[in-house]
Amino acid sequence: MSEHEQHQDDGHHGHVDLVYQEALPINNGKVILWLFLSTEIMFFAALIGTYIVLRFGAPAGTWPRPHDVHVDELLGTINTFILIFSSFTVVLTFEAAKKNLAAKAKMYLTVTFLCGCAFLGIKMYEYSSKFAHGIHPQPGGRSLLHEQSDVYYLARLKDQIAEYSKGAVLPLAGSKAEDSATEQADKVPDDKSVSIANKSTMKAETQAMLEEFLHGSLQWAEYVIGRVPNTQSAANIAGLNHRDVLISVSQDVYALPRYAGYILHLRESETAYLSRRIDEVNVEQSQLQQADGETATSLDFEMKLLAARQAYWSRQHSAVHDEEHAHPGGGINQKLHEKQHAGL
Question: Of 256, 236, 245, 255, which Cα lies nearest the Cα of 216?
Fold first, then answer.
C-alpha cells in the first residue's frame, strides 16, 4: 500500500470529536420568561384590537364618556406612570444587588415598594366609586348593573324600591332593551300597589320621589308591556314602542345627557298616546250601563296610571332641560345620593 493510500485510509477512519453547542445562548429561566411575555403581548393585542374595532365602529354619540362609567382619566394616567416607573426601579434594584451595592439596592427597593402602595391606593379610590354605585359581585351571581333594560330589570327595581333603605342605590341598566318584551309580559306581576317598607325612617321628600318614580315610570312600563300594542314590530298600529319605554326607565334611574333628545322624542309620542287613551277610557266608563265591578276597577286603575304618567312627564319636562338632569349619572340615583348627604 502506498503512502498516499495509507494517508487516505487514516483520514477516512479517523476519530471525530463532537462539540455540544446550546441552541439559545440564555438559560431556561429566561426562555420561560420571554415565552410568558409573548403570551401577554398577544393577550393585550387582542384586547386593544377589540377595543379599537368596537370604539370606531360605534355610532356617533353612543360611546360612553369616562364620567358615564365612573372612570377618572387623570388617575388612570398617573397609575400607568407609577406602574412603569416601579418596573424601572426594580431593575435598578437587581443591578445594584448584582454589584453588591447594598445601600443602593435598599433605596431602589424602597422606592418600588412605595410605588406599589401608591398604585394600590389609587386603585382602591377608583374602585370605591364602582362599589358606591353597586357595580360589584353580589350574592346571586350579579351586581346592580344590568346589561339591558328588560322585564327582569323592572322586577329588580320594584324589589329595590320596596326594600329601599337610606343610602342605597337602584340597579342600573344598559341602553339595550329586550326585543321580545311582549313575550315576557306574563312574568311581570301586575301589582296595583307596591308598598315602600321604610316609610317611617324616610323623609317625606325622598318618599314622594320614590313613589312618583314607582307609579309614573316603573308601573307605567309594566302596563305598556302587558296591555299596549307594540309598535316596534308594526309601526302602523296605535300603541307604543316597548323597547323605548323600557329604555326610558333606565334613563330615569341613571340619566345620560346624550339621550336627552331621544327622551324628548319619546315624550312626544307618549303624550299623544296618553291624550287619546284617556279620552277612550272616559268613553268606556260612561258607556258602562251596568255596574261591572271587575271592569270598572280595571278602568279606574288604568285611568290613575295614565294620569300618573301624564303628571310624571309634566314634572320631568323642565328637568330634561335642567343642567342637573343633564349631568352624567343624573336621575333618581343622583338625587338619592344628594338627599343622603343633605340628611333627607
Answer: 245
